Amino acid sequence: MTAPHPDAPVIGLDLGGTKIAAALVGSDGTVLARHTLPTPATRGAEEVLDALAEAAREVWAPGTTAIGVAAAGVIDPVTGTVTSATDTIRGWAGTALATGLATRTGLPVACDNDVRAAAATEPDGPDDDGTLLYAAVGTGVGGAVAAANRMLHGAAGIAGHLGHLPSPEADGLPCTCGATGHLEAVAAGPAITALCARLGGEPADRLQAVAERAALGDPHATAAITLGARATGRVLGGLANALGPHHVVVAGGVPRIGALYWDALCAAFAAELMPPLHGLRPRPPRGGADAAVLGAAALPRTLPLHKPATTGVPS
Ligand SMILES: [Zn+2]
User: pLDDT tens, 31-45?
Assistant: First the structure.
């Protein structure tokens, strides 16, 4: 297993439920080319792999040595497969992501969960070996933990799934994983939207509508957002006590709904901290819109590279 040449460009692919973002990234982190196309999510895993290969070809240039793929779901970088996933992409769980893409492109492929890939861009450069606690709160609640310059992957690639920690605020609520009482069931965007209706508010089809009502003083919308934020803050505060992070980052679409959410999260976080951690506060991610593809392009430097499948009769 040979690492790509340090000066050669690498292709980063960010696979989401609705679109695929591709970038050719130079050794200094400069984006040299980019392309996006829709994810054929309803057409199954083989067509999604074809679309990833097409996106890679659109940005490919002579000298490209490897592809890094950041994808939703539980991804095992060692086997290069999707350990488990929701049905956002039909038939995605069990897909041989890395080998399937390597075979289609002829380039070696490293892969990881999209949240971990983005989290890896947060430390202050390669010399920052501080512990990182990273949460991503959106349609689900994901996360990543890094220590001593190493991203924690854990058994079957499961490490960092912060949304499946028990939360008192979620007591009795069914979680997407099949258990009850997990953080995601009260803190994800759809969970906050549903909570607003359960508290007696007008049903809304998306979180932004709840946020707009809260800004106008609606008590049900305000209560739902505050509860989701507080639940996340408490879990992160507890994790901070357990891990002693130097950086706590809260990313994703939900924290961007405004100060009501962010302030409630930070207050609940601070209330959980043991005295030596006083002063530690969560911050938004530094990475901009390119964090996912830059994180993906960095994966071949640290993770196993999977080669194209060999065909023909074994000797
Ligand atoms: Zn769960």
Answer: 999 999 999 989 999
